Structures are given as structure tokens and as C-alpha cells.
Fold this sequence. Notes:
- The complex is a heterodimer of chains A (327) and B (327).
- By secondary structure, chain A is of the alpha/beta class.
- In chain A, 33% of the residues lie in helices and 22% in strands.
- Classes of the chains: A alpha/beta (327), B alpha/beta (327).
Amino acid sequence: xxxxxxxxxxxxxxxxxxxxxxxxxxRGAKVLAVDGVSFWVREGETxxxxxxxxxxxxxxxxxxxxxxxxxxxxxLWRGRRIDRLSRADMRxxxxxxxxxxxxxxxxLNPRMRAVDIVAEPIRNYESLPVAAVRARAADLFERVGLRxxxxxxxxxxxxxxxRQRLGIARALAVGxxxxxxxxxxxxxxxxxxxxxxxxxxxxxxxxNLSYLFVAHDLAVxxxxxxxxxxxxxxxxxxxxxxxxIFARPQHPYTEALLEAVPVPDPAIxxxxxxxxxxxxxxxxxxxGCRFHxxxxxxxxxxxxxxxxxxxxxxxxxxxxxxxxAVV
Amino acid sequence: MTPLLQVTGLETRFFTRDGVVRAVDGVSFSTEAGETxxxxxxxxxxxxxxxxxxLRLIASxxxxxxxxxxxxxxRDLLTLSEDEMRAVRGDAISMIFQEPMTSLNxxxxxxxxxxxxxxLHRGLSQQDALARAAEMLRKVRMPEPERRLRQYPHELSGGxxxxxxxxxxxxxxxxxxxxxxxxxxxxxxxxxxxxxxMRELARETGAAIILITHDLGVVAEMAQRVVVMYxxxxxxxxxxEALFAHPRHPYTAGLLGSMPRLGDSLREGALKxxxxxxxxxxxxxxxxxxxxxxPRCPNALSRCTQETPSLVAHGTGHFAACWNPIA
Lengths: 327, 327
């Protein structure tokens, strides 16, 4: 799997193993939160990263942003490794690589006025007169749909949706090329969620932004993404253009995830096949294919051998013994 | 036939330092045995306060039920003494909450917690109650039920804890089960398991279910009838098919339209933008005349901000509180 030349961001063989708290029996045990993940994101593209809690999707986002350091593997920005860069060398990269988080309330400084929250990154990167910084902040406010009279307000004076707009304005302040969005709409009410999704898509169209969109809501991910990667227990089980993922899923886990989503139409109340059991612990993941304990199609070989991620049709990669390349 | 539960003109207010919050403002609905009634709405619409008011679980102060009737099997629960009310809770009416971890006692074994209701309401011995508890765990398809009896909540996964909650709620054979966002904290594959379980048990026991949720997908899969709440008031009520096929209140239509659906963006000529409901949910801290949705409503007339609309019938069992409903 090698990245195309126009890839902005590439992740190769990324691993993050957290030590567990020292217990008497579990000494030396590790949580294999992210266990060998590779993908790329092109200019102007949205890659959705989905999976259930504990699958490692958020950890992957944090590793890319270098909020935590990887155990192994590489993160490349415009083809250059950034996973070992010093703080100083990381500075120009951070300008282009920004983040929007789930809970804007805990990611915005409550003691700063909105204008300063947006202006801070501008001041960090550019020496501009005060009036110019203020004008830029006002522009950003307009762009994300906030009113100029809200510039002097504090985060608690904003509603949830407006706070997320403020978080987006801050991320946009220094002209990013890619934004890692970690569950940016999952704390919002449906009616407001639609506002923020539309805003993100408008901004992408205007500025040719790229998004790594980490979320658990499959309908939202389908709506906003161009390609989608599905994670299970620290690994990508399938990555493909969204049409393939949602119309022709190939991995049994992708299939099961889609099957489990309630359909908002009482006329097609479906008799679904429910996936049994819980997600196993990432401390001692199952041997072979990690999904084999819950897979309805499991075979002997799945319990022993780990299936590699293989390209079975152009752009569609699947890690499953039962899905072979149709060459 | 008299309904199992009939709520009339329920008014619950919170008396805070910043003023009086009209959390539930004259809500009426009823439900019959064997039926699942969904109450939907966004955060702050009063759906949870409504359900807590039925069981008189509103913290006082600051909350108080200031008006209305809650007739359950002909008796007004609002006039019962605290002792009489305690005999109802967990017996004839029981409740499941969103977060099983905070509603289970961390210091008691699973067995003790399920058995408690039987000892309290049925006068069973601890031993007989524990045997019944094991049976109940088998019924909610808990793996290794005997072992679970001796375990503590922290030893179980989220899905298993929700199964314990359901076992606790059903052990005394309630006639009414109130489920407040029972699957919101769960992953989608586990949600599918729990919804299936609830459907099955409801069929088996003939209990009525009041399902409080913000998720229209869950509503479509579970409910026969739906009440839509906005700003502490009921704005629409309908059989589930009618509500999804032909919503009359612009708020209901907005909610349905703002929600991305699986498969929608794959269609030829699919709309790129989600329908937005502009603005945000109203503050309920002052008495307001007119329709509370008017400031966000695309159909609003001048009358809407002055006169509160009353519920008008639009077909069998279909009501909407709107001066200018969708035709």
C-alpha cells in the first residue's frame, strides 16, 4: 500500500501500545490501542475513520496530531516524516494540520474571550498589528456563521453548536490544509448537527480542505466522507471509497456495523441479524483475525492466521481470509 | 377501554436562582398495555423530566410538579403518599436509565441488586430471590448467569450492565416500563442487541413501554406511537407510520430532514446539503406566549408569536400544535 503522490497525510504501520496499570497478574500487559494502521488522505479529500468505542480511531487522530507519541510506525506530512520532529520543527506543520474536537467546551479556554481564542494562533504565527488580527478574527467569525457582536463573549455564553463553530474558527485561523475532526458533531442535537456538517462541507468546497473525520455515526460519516476506513480492535479491517463501503461492504464487520444501524423508516422495520457478544479486550485480542470471535462466517484458518489488508478491487482494501482479490 | 397510563396537563417547573424553568408545560398523553410509545425531542425539550415526573423522581428543590394528573390504572400517582409511591416504583412501573454504571450500586453484587425488588415487593427470601435473579439474567441472555450474580457492576461491559438494568426492571413483572435513552451510551452493534431484547421481552410480558429518545432511527424500529416534544410542550403526536410518512408540525419535519440517513448520499442526484433548522432550542426560563418554535420555523405566520397553538387532529390519532401545519 503506497501513498499516491498527492497525499497530504500518510500514516504507515502506526502502533500505540499503552502499558496497563501495574496489577499483580497483569504485569507488563499492554493495551494494543492502535496496532499497525496505514492510510493516507489526499488534498481536498475527507477520509472517514469509523469503528466502535475502543477500536483506536481517536488514538489514531491523536497520534497524527502528536498529542501522544507512537510506539512504532510513521506519520508523513507532504511526504516528510513528522513523528520524530522536535517542537520547533513541528511548528510549521502544526499551522497546516489542525484539530476540532468533540466537546468544544473542554477544548476552549473558558477564561478567554472568543476573539482571543481565534486570535491566539494568528499571533503565534504572524506578527500583525492588533487591528489586523481583530479584522481576521471578525472575518473568521463571519465565515463560520457567528455574529460580530459575539467576539467579546466567553465560551460559556455560546450554545453547543456555536461553541463548535468557534472551535472550527480557531482551527481555520492560520490557514490549515487538513483538519483532524474527532467526533465533531456527536455532542450536538440533530438539528444543530446538520448546521455544523453543512458548514464543514462548505468550508471544504471553498478552501479545498482535507479532513480526517473520526466518528462513530455511520450515517454522518457516509454523508461527509469520500473514502472510509473501518477499524476494529486497533486495526483497519476495510478501507475503500464510500460507495464501496456503504453499498458493497466486503468485510463481515463492516457488514455487521451497517446492519446494526436503526433505519429511520418504520415501513422497512427490518429483521436483522444481530452480531453477538461484546468487543474483546484490546489487552488480549483474539488470535488470527481479531473479529473471528464474533464473525458469522468464521472458518478454522481465521482463528490461526491474521488476514493481511489486501486490495480486492481498485481502491478497496479488505483484511479477510474469505475475500480474495478477484484478478 | 381505559388506558394503562393517562397523563393530563402535566406541569413540572424548576425554581432556580435565575428564574423559573418551565421544563414540562402542560403535556398530555396516554399509553395502553402492550404498546411502545416513544417520546422524542432534543436536549432540554422536557422528555426526561416528563418520565421522571411520572415516577415522582424530580429532585425537590429545585423541581416541583405544579399541575396535572398522572393516572396509572385509574389511580392518580401525584396524590399518593411517599410510601405508596415506593410500592409502585420497581413493581408496577419500573425504569431503565441511559447510563447503567451510574444507576447500579457499585458496592453490591449484581445478584443482590436484582433480588432487592423481589425481597422488597414480593417478600421473597434472599435465597429464592437470588434463584429468580439468575432466571432473569438467563432471560436477558446474559452469558454465564450464575457467575454474574456474584460479580460487581465494574466487572461487566456496558452492554452487559444494560442487560442487568433490564433484568432489574423486569424482575417484578411491571405493567409499565419507562426506558430513558436506554441505548444512547452503547455502541451500535450492542444497541442492536439491546433493542432486540427489549422488543422480545415486551412481546412476552405484554408490558407497555415508554421509550424516551432523541434517535429517530430507534423510534422507527421500536414504537407504535410517537409524541414529539419541543420546549417542554407536546407539538405532535401520531402513529409511527404517519409521523414518518407525513409529519404535520414543521419541527418534526425539520428533525426528520436534518438527519443524514444511510444510503442517501449514494443516490444519483442526492442533495449535498442537509436540511438545517436555523437557530437553537429556546430557553424555558420565562413564560412565553405563542409557539416556541416560531423563531426557527419556515412556516411561521405573525399569529404564531402571539397565540399558543392548541393540538388539532389530522387523521386518526394524529395531532399537531401548529397554526400553519404542513399540508
